[in-house]
Amino acid sequence: MKLLLGKIRYDEFKWKLCGDLKVVALLLGLQLGYTKYCCFLCVWDSLDKKNRYVNKLWAKRTSLTPEEKNVVSPPLILPDKIYLPPYT
Fold first, then answer.
1. Which has the closest alpha carbon to 29: 86, 58, 57, 69?
2. What distances in angstroms separate CA 8 from CA 1, 29, 36, 43, one per listed residue?
3. Which pTM value belongs to this model?
4. Assigned domain for 88 exists
5. What is the dihedral of CA 2, 87, 60, 71, to 10 degrees?
6. Structural domain span for residue 58
7. CB within 10 Å: which end of the chain, N or C, has fewer?
8. Is 45 a domain residue?
9. 3-class SS at 5?
10. For the CA atoms of the chain, what is the radius of gyration?
11. What is the pLDDT of residues 27-84, one digit of tens each?
12. In whole angstroms, what is the distance from residue 55 CA to residue 50 CA?
């Protein structure tokens, strides 16, 4: 993905990107497999079965620090440069 961003000269143009959740997770350096904190926007704990349907407001992610909360590498783009596609 880093090579692809280099080929389209992302650093030069600073486009906003739109993609599905797997692509967004890849661009933000998140773990792609089975994860505890699967939401890239917040710190939603997918293993917290007691509060899964009770807690409606999960804390927003403040950083994407590698080796912390399922972040495996530094993000390739800033989170505010991502659009989520509309779903039907």
1. 69
2. 11, 19, 33, 31
3. 0.68
4. no
5. -30
6. 1-83
7. C
8. yes
9. helix
10. 14
11. 888 888 777 777 777 777 777 778 777 877 878 888 888 878 888 888 888 888 888 7
12. 9
